[in-house]
Amino acid sequence: MMRILVVTGGIGSGKSKVCAILEEVYGFPVYNADSRVKGLYESDPEMLDSIEEVLGQSFRTEDGKFSPSLLAGRIFSDEEDLAKVEQLVFPALVRDFKAWQAKAGNHDFIVFESATILEKEQFKGFGDVVMLVDAPIRLRLERACRRDSSSEDKVLARMSKQKLMNEFSEGIALPEVDVVIANTGDVEELKVKVTECIDTLLDRNIDNN
Q1: Residue pLDDT, tens place only, 2-34
Q2: Closest CA to 123 of 86, 153, 163
Q3: CA distances (Å), 152 to each of 11, 37, 164, in order?
Q4: I want to staple 22 with a disulfide (CB 3.0 to 4.6 A). Which of 28, 56, 176, 193 is the partner?
Q5: Which SS3 state, helix, strand or coil, does residue 5 take?
Q6: How far apart are CA 27 and CA 159, in angstroms?
Q7: In angstroms, what CA-CA distances link 64 with 49, 51, 59?
Q8: Cα atoms in the Cβ-side hemisphere of radius 13 Å centred on 133
Q9: Beta partners for 129?
Q10: For residues 12 and 135, is the Cβ–Cβ distance under 8 A?
Q11: What phi and psi, each to the nearest 5 degrees, are found at residue 196?
């Protein structure tokens, strides 16, 4: 039976590297929820129409194309407007994921990559196994600044939105998490940790069957 492996983690944790390893070593298909959401704004015009109606504002350029910066500027610091948008986006994302899943083929796991899934009530209980990729906050900050060529202030502003991820990095337990990958070394060390974890999960699945 194919299972859903949720891979999550805060900014700079290395969750995308983990997903790349899962794809390279095991051939698990990876659904990147953050990227797919961006695509939905353009591929699902009814969803964008609904968002504009709810917020009472157009988020398109003069030529009619969706403008991510306009929407981000409206919802980045407004929790109420963000919640309204998520009520429309998340159902569309789930539909898109299910359509993608139906075409993914037969695998032990398919991967759902999302930075914020544990923060969202709508996704409570989603997936069969939740893997959280983590590193100390300072290390995550340094990685993100280096990766994005961004200032610490800008990265910290983005990190502040991921409250659960920051709490976990500071030692708060999250009961939803089944597996933790501590990404504190180089890529080769990370690869060893990921393969050891997945091999254990696969062996456990065989034993359960």
Answers
A1: 899 999 999 999 999 999 999 999 999 999 998
A2: 86
A3: 12, 26, 20
A4: 28
A5: strand
A6: 31
A7: 12, 15, 9
A8: 31
A9: 5
A10: yes
A11: -60, -40
Encoding tokens for residue 56? 């009472």
Residue written as tokens 């890529």? 187
| Contact (Cβ atoms closer than 8 angstroms) between residue 114 and residue 62 | no
Q: How far apart are CA 162 and CA 155, in angstroms?
A: 11
Question: What's the pTM value of the predicted model, to 2 decimals?
Answer: 0.89
Q: Which of 124, 114, 54, 105 is nearest to 83 (CA)?
A: 54
> How many other C-beta atoms are found inside a 10 Å radius of the C-beta of residue 62?
6
The one-letter amino acid code at 110 reads: I
Interval 35-58: pLDDT, tens: 999 889 888 888 999 999 999 999
- Reported for 23-28, long-range contacts at CB under 8 A and 24+ positions apart, including other chains, are 23/111, 25/191, 25/194, 25/195, 25/198, 26/107, 26/108, 26/109, 26/198, 27/107, 28/107, 28/108, 28/109, 28/110, 28/111
